[in-house]
Amino acid sequence: MVRTAVAFSPGHISGYFRRVEGIGLEDTGSVGAGVVINDGVRSTVEEARETSVRVVRQDHASAGSPPVEYALERLGVAARVTTECRLPIGAGFGLSAAALLATLTAANHLFDLGLSPDEVAARAHEAEVLHRTGLGDVAASMSGGVVCRTGSGIHADITRIYPEEPLYAVSLGALPTASVLSSPGAMARIAAAYPDRCPRDLADFCGLSRGFAEKSGLVAPEVRRVLEACDAGAVPASMTMLGNGVFACGDEAEQVLSRFGEVYTLRVARRGAYLIEVKS
Over the range 13-42, which residues count as b (16 or more CB within 10 Å of their CB) and which as e? Predict the structure, then answer.
């Protein structure tokens, strides 16, 4: 029988961020705030002669993931990987980081690599930054909570609070993260818009994020319509960073967002990536 390991990693919704350029990949990243969510990516990793990656979302599948393939090559292992998720890919739910963390957590146990959780996260962070699929999602998703990162990389100072109320989100389509992260103009506007404090609670997080979204100039017309509806209903809301979607909190949030598509009800995660099982 082929040995298999299965792991899960939560996703992460970023509300506001500012890029930090380090000396190397390990300390390049971002400061900012977001919510680690209980939904994310489940990764099944099997021993194989050569690496292949299958990405499954509901009933749709695609082949290949350059960040995951790169990270496994860096570990010196070959594997057949299947990642599965419920949330839309490329829509600001931090699923690229979740796929890396889940896959490398499973591979670490499958191949007896002996890496610590920090070392697994460091490899995932390197792959994210190199492929411009994210800057701070890996650091955030190492554990749960509403997260405020005051330094870049996985060893930065991070504060976490754990509110009980849900967060609601709706996706209006994908937004290529690399196109924003590689644009000097966009990054300059983002830096100027950054609110330099941590959120007190979930509603405060939504408010700080909304101010950032407006000042950064990243709000797309379709996102604007959703935000205006939230404003009319006095619902705290902002844009998922980076994705064409909206997250919101409060009693009326689900009803308002339901006018614009499928609403995802999300809870604040209590933990980061973890191994589910190893099968021989």
Answer: bbbbbbbbeeeeebbbbbbbbbbbbbbbbb
3-state secondary structure of 64: coil
Name residue 171's amino acid.
Answer: S
Q: Tokens for 184?
A: 């000097």
- β partners of residue 62: 55
d(CA 158, CA 179): 27
Can you give the length of the chain in residues? 280
pTM of the prediction?
0.94
For the stretch 222-251, pLDDT in tens is: 999 999 999 999 999 999 987 889 999 999
21 alpha-carbon distance from chain centroid: 20
The DSSP output letter for 268 is B
* CA-wise closest residue to 215 among 197, 239, 236: 239
Go through the domains of the chain in sequence order and give each one's CATH number.
Answer: 1-280 (3.30.230.120)
- Count of CA atoms in the C-beta half-sphere (13 A) of 5: 19
